[in-house]
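Please fill in the sequence for the structure shown.

STRUCTURE ENCODING:
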């Protein structure tokens, strides 16, 4: 349950979405320096209790590729209720031209357990290679998983930023390719309706998006459901995510938004 809880928080906040089949606009709806913060709550028998903070920041690598950083950190309430704490940090390097993930670096702390991992995406060889190490036991052999990839692939973080670049509309359905821990998953997604949401950044009309992440062979084994609300405006901000699972209901809601500085185009060298 503990490992599942921390994974779902990151998954919910990251929104686990991306698509390679539709043309992407030339100007992304986010700038270098954009920062989004969220709060996560869990409820089952009692009303929702805040147990995690989440933060996403857009950066650039030498003015070219994107470097998107994400952090999910448990609050003291989680330690008091479940005697469990976690910290997960992601760094996703994304190709500026094709907007596909190139490299994922992850630092994962779950109470006393610590793991560092790196995933490298080689589109020439059509392969993702994931290696995980235990910094507390440097002599221990690393875990390694390699999988085939076809076309544009996203990790848990890059997916949402790709989704923000697509022309969402009610009734559209996508099949997404998401890689996590060296494995690749197909994630069917439906845009089911438009709904008004009251948020910390104001009342906003949103698309209601429903990815199928639960079930045999999917990102999360077992029964459950997930809903995401993304603003129906030029910003395409993910403002809320809701997950129903065996541990209860998980809510991720936006707390603040900083738009960052305007993007400047820098030509890549060959």
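FILLED IN BY: designer on duty
SEQUENCE:
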């Amino acid at each position: 349950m503990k490992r599942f809880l921390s994974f779902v928080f990151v998954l919910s906040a990251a929104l686990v979405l991306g698509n390679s089949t539709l043309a992407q606009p030339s100007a992304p709806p986010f700038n270098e320096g954009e920062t989004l913060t969220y709060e996560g709550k869990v409820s089952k028998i009692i009303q929702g209790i805040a147990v995690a903070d989440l933060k996403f920041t857009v950066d650039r690598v030498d003015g070219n590729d994107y470097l998107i950083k994400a952090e999910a950190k448990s609050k003291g309430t989680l330690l008091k209720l479940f005697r469990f704490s976690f910290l997960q940090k992601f760094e996703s390097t994304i190709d500026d031209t094709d907007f596909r993930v190139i490299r994922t670096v992850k630092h994962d702390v779950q109470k006393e357990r610590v793991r560092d991992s790196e995933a490298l995406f080689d589109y020439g060889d059509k392969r993702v290679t994931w290696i995980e190490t235990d910094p507390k036991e440097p002599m221990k052999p690393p875990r390694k998983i390699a999988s085939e990839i076809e076309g544009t692939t996203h990790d848990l973080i890059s997916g949402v930023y790709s989704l923000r670049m697509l022309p969402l509309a009610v009734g559209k359905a996508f099949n997404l390719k998401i890689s996590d821990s060296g494995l690749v998953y197909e994630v069917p997604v439906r845009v089911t309706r438009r709904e008004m949401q009251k948020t910390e950044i104001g009342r906003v009309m949103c698309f209601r998006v429903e990815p199928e992440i639960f079930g045999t062979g999917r990102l999360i084994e077992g029964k459950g459901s997930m809903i995401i609300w993304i603003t129906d405006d030029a910003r395409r901000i993910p403002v809320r995510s809701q997950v129903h699972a065996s541990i209860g209901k998980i809510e991720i809601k936006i707390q603040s938004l900083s738009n960052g500085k305007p993007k400047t185009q820098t030509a890549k060298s060959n």
